[in-house]
């Protein structure tokens, strides 16, 4: 059994005391309930749920589409920044390349490697997206096929699919894909507000990197952004303060009850400036961002410990920032034993100092070596 002392964030609020865990699970949390203001004034250590990231393309110099041992490098890098569970995210590509990536991701989803984040499954970001809203995706977009999805799912478990509902046949496939157990997000879409509402009515659950690579909001043409702000319960957002202006983040926080953070991280995350792979593209990391040769933003270098820090800097409480980097994403995926700390949940834990800098991480009870973070 291991004991971690500090101000522990539980679903009911902060407790000044200790968390005990054994066998990869939380045994108990004991102590005195305290308000957040008192916790912030007193704490030497905040004990928070490990972060959950539903949108990870890479990190530590590796890209999910490389296959091989790329996912091992990616999960080792992200766990050192407090992300204890993630979805490995693919890129739009010819089917044979997606299949190769999925074959490598299957074993990683089946078992967590030592000193690594848990891979909860795959986020299939494309190829079922709009050719007019590729963002940094390679130009291999096409309408969705349920048979194709099922064949890919047989290689590695797909938890989340991004699609553009305005593509021929995509809207009609949302309900059967949901019935088959897949969660659907609207993204990389030039569709109208009405397309977005129709997709939500058929079972789409959220929006992929809100504001980015989708039709924007105008007061007479509200677009996909308008559909999200008016109707979404869940949506991803990239809070690196580069992809989305702080004012737009604040608007989304007011409008989308369970807005949650993702990194959309690339191989460049955790690495020095230079050139890296993103699917078929070569991207360049410089000045804190990642871009294609034409200047298009191409994923990020964000990690979720920085995302939490940024949210608090925008005025969110630590409790709310934690929910938006852990709990809401877990809830969205239907995962009830991660993204929160309570007796019986996985011992996925991020310990931060009073300046919100990460000092310890536990993934399913295993303490992570942060020396190379």
UniProtKB/TrEMBL annotation:
Cofactor annotation: a divalent metal cation
InterPro entries to which the protein is assigned, alphabetical: Amidohydro-rel (IPR006680), GlcNAc_6-P_deAcase (IPR003764), Metal-dep_hydrolase_composite (IPR011059), Metal_Hydrolase (IPR032466)
Binding site for Zn(2+): 125, 188, 209
Coiled-coil regions listed: none
Keyword Translocase: no
One Gene Ontology term from the biological process aspect of the record: N-acetylglucosamine catabolic process
Entry keyword set: Carbohydrate metabolism, Hydrolase, Metal-binding
Active site: 264 (proton donor/acceptor)
Domain Amidohydrolase-related: 46-365
Family, per entry: Belongs to the metallo-dependent hydrolases superfamily. NagA family.
This protein's name: N-acetylglucosamine-6-phosphate deacetylase
């Amino acid at each position: 059994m291991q004991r971690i002392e500090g101000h522990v964030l539980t679903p009911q609020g902060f407790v000044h005391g200790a968390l005990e865990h054994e066998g990869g699970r939380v045994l108990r949390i004991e102590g005195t309930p305290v308000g957040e203001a008192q916790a912030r004034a007193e704490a030497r250590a905040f004990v928070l749920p490990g972060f959950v990231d539903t949108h990870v393309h890479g990190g530590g110099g590796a890209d999910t589409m490389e296959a091989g041992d790329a996912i091992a490098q990616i999960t080792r890098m992200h766990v050192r920044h407090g992300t204890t569970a993630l979805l490995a995210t693919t890129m739009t590509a010819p089917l044979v390349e997606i299949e190769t990536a999925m074959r490598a991701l299957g074993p990683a989803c089946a078992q967590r490697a030592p000193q690594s984040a848990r891979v909860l499954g795959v986020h299939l970001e494309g190829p079922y997206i709009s050719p007019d809203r590729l963002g940094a995706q390679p130009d291999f977009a096409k309408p969705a096929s349920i048979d194709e999805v099922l064949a890919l799912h047989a290689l590695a478990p797909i938890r989340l699919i991004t699609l553009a509902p305005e593509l021929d046949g995509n809207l009609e496939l949302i309900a059967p894909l949901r019935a088959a157990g897949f969660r659907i997000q609207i993204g990389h879409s030039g569709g109208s507000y009405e397309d977005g509402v129709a997709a939500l009515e058929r079972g789409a659950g959220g929006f992929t990197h809100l504001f980015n690579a989708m039709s924007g909001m105008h007061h007479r043409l509200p677009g996909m952004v308008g559909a999200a702000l008016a109707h979404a319960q869940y949506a991803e957002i990239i809070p690196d303060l580069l992809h989305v202006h702080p004012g737009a983040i604040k608007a989304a926080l007011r409008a989308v009850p369970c807005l949650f953070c993702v990194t959309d991280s690339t191989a460049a995350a955790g690495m020095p400036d230079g050139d890296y792979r993103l699917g078929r593209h070569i991207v360049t990391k410089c000045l804190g961002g990642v871009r294609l040769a034409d200047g298009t933003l191409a994923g990020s270098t964000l990690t979720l410990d920085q995302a939490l820090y940024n949210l608090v800097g925008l005025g969110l409480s630590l409790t709310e920032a934690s929910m938006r980097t852990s709990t809401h994403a877990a809830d969205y995926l239907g995962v009830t034993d991660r993204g929160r700390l309570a007796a019986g949940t996985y011992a996925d834990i991020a310990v931060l100092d009073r300046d919100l800098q990460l000092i310890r991480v536990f993934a399913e009870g295993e303490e992570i070596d942060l020396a190379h973070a």
